Structures are given as C-alpha cells and as structure tokens.
C-alpha cells in the first residue's frame, strides 16, 4: 500500500471534508482518504500504484476542490524540511493577505450598515432618538447597490458554493452563506425594482439587503480570524523547522569550507565552532564540547560530548570546537524524522472526531431542508396570526438566519486544531505522538507497565558497593587496585570499575603483564605481586555478604593479591534518578504500575522496591512479554507499555499505547505510539497529562460546536418570537457564525500555555 499527502485547495468547512473524503474514497485504487480541515491536507492510501493527480482533480474539480502534490525531492539527502515548509507557509501567508484585503473592504461596510440598522431599530423604540436623516426609499436603493457589489464581487466564493450545489447537489458552508445572502438580496431587489408588482401581490416592503452586507462582512472577518488562528496552531512545526541549520562547515585536507546544508552527504567531515548549530546528525571524530539539546529532547541541561559520542542536527554547540562525521543527512536526520512524526500526528484523526464527521456529512443538507420547512411553517402558521406580509417577512428572515447561523466549521475544527496544538506542545517537551488515536487512548489508560533494563534503570552497570574483607583496608585502595587491573580490559564491568575510580578522583595503580582469563576474570602484576579480579569461586558464594548482594541481583567480583582475597566490588544496573518520582506520580494519578522484565526475580524485586513498584512480573521471555500485556487487558485494563529494547517491541505493539524511549532501539520506536526523547521516563507522566488536557479541550470544542448549532438554529428560526416577541436579525446570525469557529480555534490555542508537570 502506498501513502501520499496532498494539500487541498478550496476547503472551508467540515462539510467540505465530508464531500472530499466521500468522493476520493469512492475512486478505484484508493483504500482510504483522511482529509484534515485544520492542516488542509488529504492523506491518501492507495491499494497499489498512486493514482495520477489529474484523475483525482477531474473528480474534485466538479465540487470546487483541488489537490496539490508536493514536489518529490531528488533524493532524501537533498531534501531538508525548511524548503517544503517555507513554501507552504508562504502560500498560507499569501492567502491570508488576500483575505485581509477582502475584510478591509467588507468589514467597514458591514459595520456601517449594521450601525444604521441599529439606529432604525432603536429610533423606532425610543422617541427621543432622531430619525435617520436619509429617507428610507433612498437608503434602501443605496443599500441594494452596495449589497450587489458585496454579494456578487466580494461574496463570489459563497455564490460558487451555490452554483456547485445547483450542478452536483452537494452543499457546504459556502452554499449556506451564499444562499442566505442571495435570498436576502434577491427579495430586496424585487421589492425595490418592482414596487407595483410587490404591492399587487401583497408582499412586505422590507429590504434585507443590509443583512446580506452584514452577513458577508462578518463571515469573511470570521474566516480571516480563523485562518490567522489556524496559522498559529502550526507554530510548533515552524519552530522545529527553524532549528535546521542553513549551512555547514566542511573539513577537507586541513581546509574549512562553508557549504549549504543540503549538499552535505553521509561520511562528510564537518566542523562545528562554539555557539554554532550542529548541521546534521553525526559522530564526534575529535574534540569535545557541551551541547544544548533542549530544543530536541526538552532537557534543559547541556550534555557533555566527547570523541565517539553522537550529535544531533539542530542542537547548539555551547563551548569548544569539534569535528564530526555526518551519519544522517536530509530526511534521515533525527530532526527531520521528528518533524515528519509530528506532521503525521497533526494530520491524523482521533476516534472522538468520528461523531463530528458523521454529523458534518449530513449537516448542510439537513439545514437546507430545515430552512425551507421553517419558511413554509411561518407562511402556514404565521399568516393567520400576523397577516401574510408579516409572516413572509419573518419567513425570509428565518430562512436567511438559519442558513447563515448554521456552522459546520466549528464541528470540523473542534478536534484537529486541538490535536495540532497538543502534539506541537508534546514535541516541544520531547514527547512525540505518532497519531491522534494514541493521544486519545493515553488519556484513558489505567495501567502503566515498565520494562526494567534501560527503562527504569540506566541500562549499564555501575559500582554500588566496595567491601574490604579486612576492616583495616580502605575502600579507596581496593578500588585503585581493581581499576588499575581493569583499565586494560574492554569488558562493560571493567569499564564500570574504571569509571567509579574516575568519579571518586582515585588514581588507578599501575600494573603490568595484563592477561584476560576466559570465564574467570583478569590477571596482572603489581610490582612482583600477582593480582587478580575474578568472579566468586566454589563456596565463596555462600559467604553472607556475597549471598546478600547476589540475591539483590548484583554482580560480585573478588579482588586478590598474592593469593589473598582483599575484598569485593558489587556492580549492578542502577535506578534512573527520575524513576522513583515518576512511579510515585503515576500512583498519585491512580494508575496501576507494573514492572515487566526477563531478569531473575531477586534482581527485579530489588529494583522494584527502590522504584516504589509493588507489582513485578519477572523471568519473562521476550516472546512472552506480549502475553503478559494480554493478561492485563483480559482483566479489563487499558495498558500503556514503556520500553526501549528490541525485546520490548511485541509488548509495545500489543499494549493499548506503546511508549518507547528514543535512547533505545529503532525497532522499539517503530512499534510505539508515543516516543519520549532523551530516555527520560519522567515524560510518561507529562505525556498522560498532555493527553488528558488535549482531550478536555476537544470535548469542550465539540460541546460548544454542537450546542451552538442546537441553540442557534432554533433561535434564528424564530423560536423565541411566540414567547417573547424576539426575532434574531440575520445580521446577528452572521456575527454568531463568525464567532463560533474563532472561539473553537482560540480555545485550542489555550493548550500552548498548558503546563505538563
């Protein structure tokens, strides 16, 4: 199956989304089409080879839409995210400028005619207010001429919606606004241009042309504010794109040359100066530095880097110059992958949106039917009670008001705008969400399962205790001897002992004749004395101190000199500093916390006690980890699994939400729905908080979008008139409609300031 993403032109509301989705999905060769109003994109899955864009546009063109294919790059190495996003941003800015120019003309006119409308209304109620200085007949003629220009010139996109409906029978928000404005203007034109016929037919003298001006003015203003707000929802992606370096310094035969970053290929030797931005991913060849990775991982403390360490493109070199070899360029850098992942998440749909999509699919046709029925109802019931002229006048106002106030836009924007802002906020904190469904599911999880090694623990051994057998010996002397011997070994345990000496500022003793003994340990000479670091032999494991340490899952090595055992050093994988607080916070949230590991029970329970985890599932084979998740799910639990290794991949896939640490393997990250950058499990609680806050905003948006239409449409139809004598002027319907979409987007933007910890 092939997937492609296209920009969509001409899409303005949830009904547009429903039309495009339905029409594309019906085409042979398309398995699935996801259309997103907030990002204005269509993600299409093809059953085989992608359909030509011409074929799809021939179909969509009938309904006023078109797809734009992004220009494929020459190669992954030559594409950088900056180019694509810069062009898309410029397109949106150009479109926004066009909307702004329309609003600069339409809004002042709308405000002027709205003010005159209010003057007439208030003057009729309050005798002390003077009448409008221009006589009504002249004013109505002026209004009709201005309205003609506003409706047929500025409101042309809305009239196109009416034309599309007439040709194809499909309707959108543009159709509703266009029909409302057209009805208002058409009756006014008939009333003013043919007064004799109007009187002979007994029709009201009302003019609704001012309502057409106000409606189009305020709707355009609302769409402009909505577009401007939608531009802000994508600021997270914009900031990520802004991290991309524009150039790189190539080091070749002692010469330094600055080149565009897109020309850098894998294997190129590059130089980074103090204060410079790392251009691409790579491995340090020479030099050392402290690098600010906060913009990628969310971690505020700069990370020390030395020869052999990896560096990430987009991060900032704080001090020290170094050279490094490029290992990831173009779309293969971590930054490019992060941008791609955030884009995918922002373009995806949450299951909670399904209801809104179903409503949007039938919304506009239903509104059209309701408006006609209400008009007929006013004529049928209103005529006996109010007379034909008044009934017709109210009927026309009702049909215009209903068509204008009905707003599928708010329904279409409720979920995707919150998802865009929420996933962007997550990326800012080093939390990458694969899709909206994972974000929604994460808000419902009640059980969090952690792998042990590399997730709860650091994933590498370190010295936990040094115990001389002779109480007169000093631990520092024992460590100095052990480090002197192990300095010549490359074994992970040996490196841990050397690191412990370095951290304690202990100088390793100088030894000679180093020899590694397979399965036993290492030998050397200290002067003329034979010295050895080895594992316990024979009955040594029965010694109380050794037995105790081994039951805690620690590895014990014995240090001896001249055949005499001097003491022991215990090593183990240690708890990550944030693990205990993370577990405690999850428990405060009411989550069940479980450790799932292949390690022996003693080692697992020792680490679990340190972390504050009560429930441990140990000695589980990699293939059985997924079964352990299934058992929890069989209990009715909604499970999030957090891991970092290849052996965690099946469990991450089985879990309702898989959470991978980016410090782990690529296969684990590919299997997960959420990725935490920097390997910090403290972000698990932040991710849960993010999901809950995002879902809360989505529910608020959907509630207000539904309630707005549920209350607004009956009021526009005149539901208050029989009880209170109040009838909503169509002008107010236009204001309300403009405000509904803007309020939904503004509510979503509040997420940008949300605190996750």
UniProtKB/TrEMBL annotation:
Subcellular locations according to the entry: Cell membrane
Transmembrane domains' residue ranges: 105-126, 138-155, 176-195, 207-225, 359-379, 391-414, 702-725
Species: Chlorobaculum parvum (strain DSM 263 / NCIMB 8327)
Main EC class the enzyme belongs to: translocase
PROSITE patterns: ATPASE_E1_E2 (PS00154), HMA_1 (PS01047), HMA_2 (PS50846)
Sequence similarity: Belongs to the cation transport ATPase (P-type) (TC 3.A.3) family. Type IB subfamily.
Pfam families the record matches: E1-E2_ATPase (PF00122), HMA (PF00403), Hydrolase (PF00702)
One GO CC annotation: plasma membrane
Keyword flag Transcription: no
InterPro entries: ATPase_P-typ_cyto_dom_N, ATPase_P-typ_P_site, ATPase_P-typ_TM_dom_sf, ATPase_P-typ_transduc_dom_A_sf, ATPase_P-type_domA, HAD-like_sf, HAD_sf, Heavy-metal-associated_CS
Reaction(s) the record says it catalyses: Cu(+)(in) + ATP + H2O = Cu(+)(out) + ADP + phosphate + H(+)
Membrane topology label: Multi-pass membrane protein
Domain HMA: 2-68
One Gene Ontology term of the molecular function aspect: P-type divalent copper transporter activity
Alphabetized UniProt keyword annotations: ATP-binding, Cell membrane, Copper, Copper transport, Ion transport, Membrane, Metal-binding, Nucleotide-binding, Translocase, Transmembrane, Transmembrane helix, Transport
Superkingdom of the source species: Bacteria
Entry protein name: P-type Cu(+) transporter
EC number, UniProt record: 7.2.2.8
GO biological process: copper ion export; copper ion homeostasis
């Amino acid at each position: 199956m092939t997937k492609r993403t296209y920009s969509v032109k001409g899409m303005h509301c949830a009904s547009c989304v429903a039309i495009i989705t339905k029409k594309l999905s019906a085409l042979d060769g398309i398995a699935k089409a996801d259309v997103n109003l907030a990002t204005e994109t269509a993600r299409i899955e093809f059953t085989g080879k992608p359909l030509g864009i011409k074929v799809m546009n021939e179909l969509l063109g009938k309904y006023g839409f078109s797809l734009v294919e992004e220009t494929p790059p020459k190669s992954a190495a030559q594409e950088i995210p900056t180019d694509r996003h810069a062009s898309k941003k410029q397109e949106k800015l150009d479109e926004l400028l066009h909307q702004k120019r329309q609003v600069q003309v339409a809004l002042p006119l709308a405000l002027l005619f709205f003010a005159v409308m209010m003057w007439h209304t208030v003057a009729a109620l309050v005798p002390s207010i003077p009448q409008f200085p221009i006589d009504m007949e002249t004013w109505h003629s002026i209004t009709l001429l201005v309205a003609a220009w506003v409706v047929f010139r500025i409101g042309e996109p809305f009239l196109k919606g009416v034309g599309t409906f007439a040709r194809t029978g499909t309707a959108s928000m543009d159709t509703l606004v266009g029909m409302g404005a057209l009805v208002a203007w058409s009756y006014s034109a008939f009333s003013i241009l043919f007064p004799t016929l109007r009187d002979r037919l007994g029709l009201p003298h009302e003019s609704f042309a001012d309502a057409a001006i106000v409606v189009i003015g305020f709707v355009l203003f609302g769409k402009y504010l909505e577009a401007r707000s939608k531009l802000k929802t994508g600021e997270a992606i914009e900031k990520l794109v802004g991290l991309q370096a524009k150039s790189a310094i190539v080091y070749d035969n002692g010469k330094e040359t600055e080149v565009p970053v897109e020309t850098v290929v894998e294997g190129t030797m590059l130089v980074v100066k103090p204060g410079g931005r790392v251009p691409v991913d790579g491995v340090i060849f020479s030099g050392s530095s402290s690098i600010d990775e906060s913009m990628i991982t969310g971690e505020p403390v700069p990370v020390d880097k030395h020869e052999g360490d990896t560096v990430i493109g987009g991060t900032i070199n704080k001090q020290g110059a170094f050279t490094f070899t490029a290992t990831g360029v173009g779309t293969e850098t971590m930054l490019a992958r992060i941008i791609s992942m955030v884009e995918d998440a922002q373009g995806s749909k949450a299951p909670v949106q399904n209801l809104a999509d179903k409503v949007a699919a039938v919304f506009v046709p239903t509104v059209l039917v309701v408006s006609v029925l209400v008009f007929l109802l006013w004529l049928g019931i209103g005529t006996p009670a109010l007379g034909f002229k008044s009934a017709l006048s109210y009927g026309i106002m009702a049909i215009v008001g209903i068509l204008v106030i009905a707003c599928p836009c708010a329904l279409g924007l409720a979920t995707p705008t919150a998802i865009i802002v929420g996933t962007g906020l997550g990326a800012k904190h080093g939390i990458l969400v694969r899709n909206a469904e994972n974000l929604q599911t994460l808000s419902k999880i009640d059980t969090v399962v952690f792998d042990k090694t590399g997730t709860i623990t650091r994933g590498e051994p370190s010295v936990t205790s040094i115990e001389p057998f002779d109480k007169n010996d000093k631990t520092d002397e024992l460590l100095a001897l052990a480090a002197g011997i192990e300095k010549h070994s490359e074994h992970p345990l040996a490196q841990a002992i050397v690191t412990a000496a370095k951290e304690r500022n202990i100088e390793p003793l100088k030894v000679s004749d180093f020899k590694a003994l397979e399965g036993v340990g290492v030998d050397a000479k200290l002067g003329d004395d034979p010295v050895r670091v080895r594992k316990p032999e024979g009955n040594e494991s029965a010694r109380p101190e050794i037995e105790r340490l081994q039951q805690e899952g620690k590895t014990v090595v014995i240090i001896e000199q001249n055949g005499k055992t001097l003491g022991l050093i215990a090593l183990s994988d240690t708890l990550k500093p944030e693990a205990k607080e993370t577990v405690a916070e999850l428990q405060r949230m009411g989550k069940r916390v479980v450790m799932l590991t292949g390690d022996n029970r003693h080692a697992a329970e020792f680490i679990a006690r340190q972390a504050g985890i009560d429930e441990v599932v140990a000695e589980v084979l990699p293939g059985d980890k997924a079964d352990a998740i299934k058992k929890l799910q069989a209990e009715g639990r909604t499970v999030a699994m957090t891991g970092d290794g290849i052996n965690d991949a099946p469990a991450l896939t089985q879990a309702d939400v898989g959470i991978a640490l980016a410090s782990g393997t690529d296969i684990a990250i590919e299997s997960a729905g959420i990725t935490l950058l920097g390997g910090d499990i403290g972000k698990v609680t932040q991710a849960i908080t993010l999901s809950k806050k995002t879902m809360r905003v989505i529910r608020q948006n959907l509630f207000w979008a539904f309630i707005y239409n549920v209350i607004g449409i009956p009021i526009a139809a005149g539901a208050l008139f029989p009880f209170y004598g109040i009838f909503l002027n169509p002008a107010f319907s236009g204001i309300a409609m403009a405000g509904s979409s803007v309020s939904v987007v503004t509510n979503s933007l509040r997420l940008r300031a949300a605190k996750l910890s």
